[in-house]
Write a structure and sequence with these properties.
The structure holds three protein chains of three kinds. By secondary structure, chain A is mostly helical. Chain B is α/β, with parallel strands linked by helices. Helices cover 39% and strands 28% of the residues of chain B. The longest helix of chain B is centred in the middle third of the chain and has 17 residues. Chain B is globular. Chain C contains eleven helices and no strands. Classes of the chains: A mainly alpha, B alpha/beta, C mainly alpha. Chains A and C meet through helix 2 and helix 8 of A and helix 2 and helix 8 of C.
Chain lengths: 264, 340, 272
Amino acid sequence: MMEKVGHYWDVYKKFVSTSVSVETSFRTSFILLIFMDLFFFFSSVGSVSFIYDHVANIGPWQKDQLLFFLTFMLMIDNLHMMIFSQSFWEFSFNIKSGQLDYVILKPMNTIFSVFFRHFRASSLFNTPLFLGFLIHYGIKVNLSLFDWLMMPLFLILSLVLLILIEFILSTSMFWLTDGIGINFLRMQMQQLARWPNFIYQGFIRKVLTVLLPVLLIGSGPVHFLLDKNQWQLLATMVLVIFVLVIILNWIWKVGLRNYDSASS
Amino acid sequence: MTTPLITAQGLTKQFVSYKKNPGVMGSFTSFFKRNPVIKDAVKDFSFSVAKGEIVGLLGPNGAGKTTLMKMFTGIIVPSDGELKILGSNPWERDKNFRKRIALVMGQKSQLWWDIPAMDSFLLLQKYYEVSDKNFEARIEKMSELLGVKDLLHIHVRKLSLGERMKMELMASLLHNPEVIFLDEPTIGLDLVAQENIRKFILEYHRENECCIIITSHYMQDVQALCDRLVLIFDGKKGYDGPLSRFEDILGNEKNVTFNFSSPQEPESEFWHSLNGEWSKNNTQVDLRIPEEKLRESSAHIITTFPVEDFATDKLPIERVMKELMNNPKLLREQQSSETL
Amino acid sequence: MTTGDAIKNNFSKWWITIQISWVKHTAYRLNFFLQIIGPALVFFFVKYNLWSAIYGADDSLVIKGFNFEGMINYHIWAFVVGLVAQGHGSWNLAEDIRLGRISSYLIYPFNFWEFHTASWLSFQTIQMFIAAITLGVIAFFDLLQFPGWNFFLIGVAYTLFISLFWFALQYLTGVMAFWLEETWILRVMLSVVSYFLSGAIIPLDLYPDWLVNILNYTPFPYLVYYPIKIFSGETSSLGLGLIIISIWTVVIALINHLVWKKGIKLYTAAGM
């Protein structure tokens, strides 16, 4: 078992090194990406700030609480962009071009070969800044020591839930001739998840919490961190993760079997 | 009798595509309703391959060669039939199975474009868990044989097609596969590059015990490398046997080309009976002449007509296949004469 | 060939390009929806929920002159304006350059800019169609505060005018493909910045005064905020907006021309 983990880690290190070597050869894009992330971050935080200039509460949360939630989600976005984002786009291109054939041939778990292949080092540059904001708002909402210790775990948990949903969505590309639209669907989901669950009402909230559980990503951990009595969403989140892992394994196999492979 | 490495029985694959009428109206109607078209890419294909064999899979474009290769490597799942390679069902994609095979596609590159070939090799070494000792030895040997030692550290996108193909081959052999699938490996290459690739494959096969399936629509690939030839038309197997017997099918005819210094008259009685293929300006003709009559016919034409140049060649595979497609009886005659 | 024939010929080239573009745009139905309409819809949906939550807590709340209906009305018009004025992205254009497909344009008797402008026109007609249907549906459910036909028509004309500016801007990000491998980054940056500064996320009325004062010198507020004002029955800034957008459009078109010339020189010199 340890050997297997060691092997996958070895291969992942190579993924990172080849990705970095490619990315740094396109210097302008590298720099532009950093700025793009920065613009997005500040426009998100700015918009929420401006709303709070005029109202004291959105739902049950005041400014610092919502901004804590937002910076938590933006941190997830940053990690997602770094580790997974590019692989999703490459996946749709590879299916369309038939390049996926080579990926499936490799003697490793295909989900690993597909979704962990590309690493974006440019996102790493912004991580300290975004983390700084998260910590700043974490202090403002008076997180306890326990909360701070749990934070990395929650970030990982949220990231895992997000990618599980996205992997499952992406398997639909095996059936679609052109899966680029699915990538836009993913981005819409991320947009929905960037707001706390209580702004959504009734039926929609249920759907987005259970069926397409994007709301659990942020609202699960953050509700718990802000108020220990609100542990239900977090528990749901853990349960959902287990269920999604099973679904993913099954649907990925079915998808591969249906892969028609573009003719040469 | 050793069990064959590859056995296929009744292999079939169907693809569904959608018909669309051209123009704006067509795209609006297809927006709402699509017409499925089902194509039999491979139909009822059966064969077996033993260890150490080099088999050539020949056929015109769209015959089903690549589809077969993809079924063999487990990339796509057959619609029907049985297939066993190295003891597994390829489409179950067992990890150990994947470690023992290799696929090279002439039309698609597996190397990463924006990094030097060597970096791709290092990544593949990790994937296939090749030991450092073996890895270095194989890189050394193969790059020597292929003459690409000083190209290893150049970005792949800067290499020429021939150089890239050599790298592709190297990449696919790093893990010492037992069964190698080569799908049109020489396509688009110049003659020198094609020769180099063939020499390399032969040398590699000599030194390593492996089984090679190669598809091509170049006869020279097959003649240089294969003991055995399998022919595919329209997804169905047309011929399966030694190369020598295939060449006998059309009764040992030779393709002879004559170039004349002035235009001739294809409609004249003499030429009409010979049924040759003429160039546009009637200064060149391709004839098919049985081997026994070759000297006599050529001599007659050379002395009677203003021949500037002439050349003989074995029948090009496309001609043979066209003939076979128009005249499937020939194949059956051949096969029945073998059973006698 | 007479001038009349030449014009007719040219027109038919434009016309066939527009038709083919329709086919291309609608070829992948799901993609078309997810890529073009989906994002705008989800964006609106999020904002609707957000403001429902905010106003839901306090019925009498009025923020800078907006009550709940007013706020939703603002965002409906933001959706429609966005669809028509900022829908187009020049990834096609960038791809043509990146993949070396320009060679054919250099040979066609139909210029690169003509081809892509015709393509944009065809896209715009689809967008107008979708916007019209959306407005029809919303009006049917009585959710729309209709400003009266004269304001509406002025608004439509103005929005179309802005779309021309936006097309020129996107064109610029596209031709950068001569130098930049991934021009999508520029386009996303442009979208993010313009969304934030044009009032597409929340009305500019909610922004700090000092910021709005600066913004009024940039073209951004005139992209979304002021058109919405027109659709809400206020045309006070119409004249100023027209002037500012016109100047910017001309400037960007000139820059496009220069950049294109430089790029083509580079391209043909490299003999790609």
